[in-house]
Specification:
With about 180 residues, the chain is an alpha+beta fold. It has a domain of about 120 residues: Aminopeptidase. Strands 1, 2, 3, 4, 5, 6, 7, 8 and 9 form a nine-stranded mixed β-sheet that branches.
Length: about 180
Amino acid sequence: MIKKSLLETDRLILRIFETTDLESMHRYRSLPQVFRYVVSDPKSRKATANFIKYAIAVRKKKPVLNYIWAVVSKKTGNLIGDCNLPIINLDQKEACLGYTLNPDFWNQGYATEITKKLIEFGFSQLKLHRIFATCDAKNVASSKVLLKAGMQWEGTFRKNTLQKGKWRDTHQYAILSTRK
C-alpha cells in the first residue's frame, strides 16, 4: 500500500486532484498548442471537469492502477500541469508515464523534474520493473525530457498513430528498475 498521496520535488508538489482545480486546468487543457503532438483535441470545460472527476475516482479504487496527479508550483501554490503513471500490466510490473504542462511553464525543467519523480515513485513505491513513455517523433522537447530523466530510446513505431487525419511516427523510451 502506498503511504503518500502526494509527491514532492524541489519546486513542485504532485497531489491528488480537487474539483476546485477546474479553472486552472481548463486554462491550459483548452489550448491547441498543448495538443499539437497528441491524438486528442483541446478539451471543453465539461471534458476537463470529467477528467478531474475520473482522476479523483481512480485514486479511490483498490488497487490503484492509474496514479494521476495535479502538478502545483511550491512557489506560487498554483496548478501548472498534470501527470500520470498508469499501470499497464500488473503481472509484468510495467507502467507508462505522461505529463501535460501549461505552456507558461514549458522549457523550465518542470517536465524533467516530474518525469524523474514518477520514475522514482514507480520503482521505490510501486516496485515496478519497467516504465515507458511514448511521444510523437516530431516532439523534440519531450524526447529530450525523457532522455534527461534517464530513459533510453527503444525505437520508433512507424505511422502507428492517426493524429488529426495524418499517420504519425511515435518514439518509445523506457527505463528498467535497477533493484533486481
